[in-house]
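Moderator note: this is an archived Q&A kept for reference. The question asked for a predicted structure of one protein chain; the sequence and the answer are reproduced below.
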Amino acid sequence: MSSVSPSAAAVQLCYEHLNGSCVKNPYSPAPRLVLYTVFSFGAVLAVFGNLLVMISILHFKQLHSPTNFLIASLACADFLVGVTVMPFSTVRSVESCWYFGQRYCQLHSCFEGSFCYASIYHLCFISLDRYIAVTDPLVYPTRFTVSVSGLCIASSWLFSIIFSFSLLGTGANAAGLEDLVSALTCVGGCQIA
């Protein structure tokens, strides 16, 4: 009699030849194809849609306004999410394994945090801009100038990059969570505590 149970034999690992490999939860071919198609379409749409917004605002002089510069910078953040985050997250989501190395996992997490936080900060500044434009339309052109817009853009990018890279890049996010990190860590995984 075999000592291996049927459920243990059915377990697939991300890297079959390595000890400590993550467990792989594969999809059957049809759902895998659908997921790759949907996620890839989303990434392509994010890249080309935001590229179109950036080119339109920067090319046409009529669109050069403080609000539109904020929108172009938001589109840049979302474009970078589509280029650097979404393709790799697609593979990780569908395959349930990270095949791009541990070092790039950390860099990917920093990019993900930086660009997503930048997008959120931009949305906050755009909301503030629109609030001022609606509540005080006569004073708005003197209050929200190109230099104020530039300050909002710079602070959005600086705060998000400094926060993400100082927290995730240095590993400060795992301080005090060593037991959780060791439980989450396996070869072929990219989980951030």
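Archived answer notes: Residues 1-6 have pLDDT under 50 and may be disordered.
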